[in-house]
Amino acid sequence: xxxxxxxxxxxxxxxxxxxxxxxxxxxxxxxxxxxxxxxxxxxxxxxxxxxxxxxxxxx
Amino acid sequence: xxxxxxxxxxxxxxxxxxxxxxxxxxxxxxxxxxxxxxxxxxxxxxxxxxxxxxxxxxxxxxxxxxxxxxxxxxxxxxxxxxxxxxxxxxxxxxxxxxxxxxxxxxxxxxxxxxxxxxxxxxxxxxxxxxxxxxxxxxxxxxxxxxxxxxxxxxxxxxxxxxxxxxxxxxxxxxxxxxxxxxxxxxxxxxxxxxxxxxxxxxxxxxxxxxxxxxxxxxxxxxxxxxxxxxxxxxxxxxxxxxxxxxxxxxxxxxxxxxxxxxxxxxxxxxxxxxxxxxxxxxxxxxxxxxxxxxxxxxxxxxxxxxxxxxxxxxxxxxxxxxxxxxxxxxxxxxxxxxxxxxxxxxxxxxxxxxxxxxxxxxxxxxxxxxxxxxxxxxxxxxxxxxxxxxxxxxxxxxxxxxxxxxxxxxxxxxxxxxxxxxxxxxxxxxxxxxxxxxxxxxxxxx
Lengths: 59, 446
Prior knowledge:
heterodimer; A: mainly alpha; elongated; B: alpha+beta; Amidase signature (AS) enzymes; 11-stranded mixed beta sheet; 17 strands; 40% helix; globular; disordered C terminus
């Protein structure tokens, strides 16, 4: 089932604010920019892993 | 003085537990102004406890614990504003065990806020300063533990390690630290960072001292052999290539010593080494966000900026990230198990660089300036992810700053790891070097 997907665009600050709000958290713009700094690194690598991990690998 | 030395002198009645406690309290009073390794000192309580310390292998030995670990009646702040008034009613399980073995707790040690970073520069309690160069970091998050052990401000210390937090400060402070197999030492009464990765372990002057502390923590004796002739040691060459060449070269001298002692040394490749850092983040970030969710909702502004950003990143990762992380951990561990079919231990530079300045947390690697926190990941995450025991042992100096060698063992292989470290320390004197620390003449800044 492993297949290459197009790269996902980085989430916007507005999107992140909504996701945080849905969990009851109200970060500032600056907070979200700080978090985005981490997500910009992790998310593309997450996508690579999703594509490479052997499908039969269990939890 | 080492734990073994203090315990031996007390047993021989050359030193009383009270004298031992007084001696360390005097050093803390005189020197910790420069180092800032302690968040709280329990002088009166420690002196009183010296009179009644139980007989045991650590009878009368003064120790200190990271301020993530509960000691009854003393605030556990985690170096955070959020926990300023958090006074536990009982000891953490690991503290109970040390006390049962006769140890006396001098106080609580500085840490990166909530142990969620590797520099020990809490905005609320100030940075811990490296005893080898006070303008440099101790590493972290157990920076106070590394600094106190190096500056002889406790005979031994406890730290916690989720993604390198014992090994990094042990390396940067020129002492010995052990991240035990995940689950070996109970974490009850310790502020969690990430449930599936957290460990508690010793930071002390030598492998022998770490073995004494670990034995008290687990209740199991640890015999340290001095013979590495039967051991097959795999050298993780990729990590030697990734490190600063002068640091890698110094760490190589420790590997050469192990070879000279008779170990069979061979290069190995660890599959998915580069990916292990990402996998670790996929687990650690959401697990930490889950721990902190109530405070993220109500006290977000009370976190330091760096920890707040990491916790929010964990909150905002997609829900599938943790599942992918769990499956990828299995994938990584399957590959690593095959490496351990061929060797007994792995070795690598513990850190790719020497400790950077407190006010400049970027480092130069292979001609590029990168954040220190990114540089350390491949050197620490793989072994955390696999839950394996790892010791960081002193391996010499570059420009007067400590370099360490990581020695990684199989699941529950602490005796082999510490045995190899002990053999190395019998053949070298890097672990015996002490920082040229003087009492401060001016107030600490920064």
